[in-house]
Specification:
The chain is α+β, with helices and mostly antiparallel strands. It is built from 16 helices and 17 strands. Strand 7 and strand 8 form a beta hairpin. The longest helix has 21 residues.
Amino acid sequence: MAMIPPADAADFTFSLGDALDIPVRVRSDGDLAKWDRRKAPKAVQPWPTSGGLPVDGEYLATTTWRQLVTAAAGAGRDLAPWLRKTPAFAVNELIARVAPLQAYLSLKDVPAPAAAAGRRLFVNAVYRHGTERSAHAAFGYHLGMTMAQWLTVGMAGLPATVHLEACGIPALTDPAKKLPDLYGNHVAEALPWLIEAKARKSLGGPGMQGGQEQLDLASAELAVPHRQVLCGTVLPEPRRWADDHLVMMVHTTLVDPSPGGGVHSLPDPPSSPGAPPLDESPDELLSVARDQLLVFRALAFGAVQDLRIVPLAETGTEPTGRSGPVGRTRPLERDADTRELRGLLLDEGVPYEWIRQERGRNLREFVVGRIPGIGVHLGLSRGLYAACARLHQVQAEVPAEEPLFPADPFLSLRGEDEVREEVSREARRTFYEREDERLVTAKREMARAYAAQEVPVELLRGARLAVERPEASGLLEARTAETYVAVEPADPILSKRR
């Protein structure tokens, strides 16, 4: 997700209307002390593009609002066992993930080095004066998950994260244990990462220590080397609301195998840079399709607006050498091939079908729709959309009797939240066991659908072909090899900035 300019792009931040800076402190010495609020704003060292966590230091990471929106859309619990029968609610889930950021954050100009954006994130008056303590706590949880997703996926080279509760390993899904939030498999390091997210007002040592204890509890179960990553997002204390911006504290350590650990591997989320094409790697395609299934269900069944087919040029290679199906996005302002494609269609009047035939695999079509209420446009490549359609069909056919997925949790003397967690985790475990029985055939069918881009016509819902210049629509667009995101100029975070 890093938005770091290449060496020949000195005007990078000025060409991106939603660019912003986030100070990030990285430590690996075990010191969980709070980052002094007087020092955090002075971070100026650019975030490196090495594809991993950098050495200990204080960094100023330049990114974009559309990249944070991408992180928010990907930060949430696994709802597949329930949405398989009610897929239209995928839109509701996406709204729930993105809207809190739009509701409670704002951008302000801040003095910064010439290469930085000069804008940072603050909490706004709605957060400060229109919400009570419980709303602050709920927002802190969601913001923490979003920022951990943003930091680890792309900024630090992870292709994707998965909720630990969805890994299917009993030792790591016990609802009675306080375990970390996420895991991922880092390609360059060839290590699993355990990730815990924390966010609160004036976050410091005690709050971070609780997260470290959760990581240590999971590490005790792993019989393989791995990395712990503790992501702390610091919200300002009340008396500093108008003056202090959001900052992140990242604590990390490499952990040896636990002598008593019984877990020898974690299920693979999407991997990526340098991986074979998705149609040649059925397991990878399945992982990517799982990662994007929520977006597919929103587009195919939800109350989306302006459903359309958006043609883009093939991605090619990133300036950093990294390119993958999901994760790190590329702003379309930097996509010269797509600008050329749009110029041929709009300026020179070249027929689209002729370009489609001539360019072949150098042209990719994306199924895109606007998510109502938040004004975010999300999309998937036609091939991935086809693969997701097949995976959705497989999941919809998994039998699940009412006792396994009760409308209301059974009564118990234990706390209601504990009962709900136990029911949900057991439902996920059983669902994926039953799904696994069908995956051998399904993966072959998904690979064929991806390669042929075979989408049932009813799932395209009459989507129109749309070729537009961003200056006409005002959209700020970005893409990966397989996904698309755009934000509108009327986005509450940006409407006063442009």
